[in-house]
């Protein structure tokens, strides 16, 4: 059984190797065919290039060299009429750009000076300044703050009928007083609130 098992494994390994070899052989054949096709294309391009160079030579045009395109020969100027010199271009053309003029000759009369106008360009995130003045209008009468714990004589205008045996903060009843004299505040200051009304609410035992 062991020998039979080993033989079976060897046969399977040999079959796998044969399959891989066949696959590699197929890839090599494909690469060889592709290389042959590329060589045929290169030969065709070389023959076409040689034919074009021969046509250029027949037309009298210098073919391009391997180092780059040859410098074109400048055309010779057409011959001028006999007895007259060839006019030269003015101003003479130089390699550098001609600078702009720096001064002008005055014409008939005085030339007004050039007017230069500046336009401000807004810059984003720029600090802006703004001036303003306080309006000194009519001063109103300042009223004091009446703290809790202040005392004043008052007259009860509207009372409350509350249950004396119940203490709670629900279902409150409004009350209203009218002050009849000065208010004594805890900071030993007084203020005249005669005629002012005070609104209250009562609950629980009063």
Protein described:
By secondary structure, the protein is α+β, with helices and mostly antiparallel strands. Among the domains are: 1-64; 151-202, no CATH class. Helix content is 28%, strand content 14%. It is built from one helix and four strands; from the N terminus they run H-E-E-E-E. The protein has one helix at residues 2-59, and strands spanning 151-158, 173-184, 190-192, 197-202. Strands 1, 2, 3 and 4 form a four-stranded antiparallel β-sheet that branches. Strand 2 (173-184) and strand 3 form a beta hairpin. The longest helix is centred in the N-terminal third of the chain and has 58 residues, at 2-59. The N and C termini lie far apart (115 Å).
Highlighted features:
1 helix, four-stranded antiparallel beta sheet, single chain, elongated, Conjugal transfer protein TraB, 206 residues, alpha+beta
